[in-house]
């Protein structure tokens, strides 16, 4: 069972590499050189302190609304391979949100039972070619199944992020250098 102490941390540098790789993949898909689907989600659980900037592409789900949003969030993120939670410092709200998300995901999406193999050749292939249809249906169902996720907490939260990447417009949006000049104020 996952606990606050066993949650994995992700450094700002590691997260920046994931974001840049995702951006490159999206650009390649737009150019038509490869297929792309977003595999990364960043959830910012800051409340009133959600000012002064945010990680590009992140979703703000204030911690005081998280419990009500969890079932929806689990469904929205079911196809993401990596989910990163953070708050200002990632000491309380970020880790707590990640843990609650993991537990809600486990509750709503228990491990899938292995796909049963066809008992006969006819069932697999189908006497009238129906086997191909069944195969396509199974493939569609597989796409809908939740993927194995890695859930992380951003080490040092947005405070640490903005120190490293606040001025990098590829990675940070709405950054206000003046607000961060004297450090974290909350």
Q: What does it look like?
A:
α2 (66-76) packs across α3 (93-108). 42% of the residues lie in helices and 13% in strands. The protein has a domain at 36-109 and 146-185: Oxidized Rhodanese, domain 1. It has helices at 12-30, 66-76, 93-108, 121-125, 130-144, 157-165, 177-180; strands spanning 8-10, 40-44, 54-55, 59-60, 82-86, 150-154, 172-173. The strands form two sheets. A five-stranded parallel sheet has the order 1-6-5-2-4. A two-stranded antiparallel sheet has the order 3-7. By secondary structure, it is of the alpha/beta class. The chain is built from seven helices and seven strands, in the order βαβββαβαααβαβα. The protein starts with 7 loop residues before the first strand and ends in a 6-residue tail after the last helix. Pfam families: Rhodanese (PF00581). Residues 126-146 are annotated as: Disordered. One of its GO terms (cellular component) is cytoplasm. Residues 36-170 form the Rhodanese domain. InterPro entries: Rhodanese-like_dom, Rhodanese-like_dom_sf.
């Amino acid at each position: 069972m996952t606990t606050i102490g066993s949650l994995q941390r992700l450094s700002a540098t590691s997260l920046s590499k994931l974001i840049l790789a995702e951006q490159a993949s999206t650009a390649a898909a737009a150019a038509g050189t490869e297929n792309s689907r977003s595999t990364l989600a960043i959830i910012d659980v800051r409340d009133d302190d959600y000012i002064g900037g945010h990680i590009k592409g992140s979703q703000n789900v204030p911690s005081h609304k998280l419990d009500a949003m969890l079932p929806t969030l689990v469904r929205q993120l079911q196809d993401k391979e990596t989910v990163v939670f953070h708050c200002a410092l990632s000491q309380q709200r970020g880790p707590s949100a990640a843990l609650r998300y993991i537990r809600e995901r486990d509750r709503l999406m228990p491990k899938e039972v292995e796909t049963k193999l066809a008992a006969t050749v006819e069932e697999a292939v189908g006497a009238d070619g129906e086997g191909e249809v069944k195969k396509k249906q199974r493939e569609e169902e597989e796409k809908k199944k939740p993927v194995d996720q890695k859930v992380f907490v951003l080490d040092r939260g947005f405070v640490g992020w903005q120190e490293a990447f606040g001025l990098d417009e590829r990675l940070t949006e709405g950054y206000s250098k003046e607000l961060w000049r004297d450090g974290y104020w909350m």
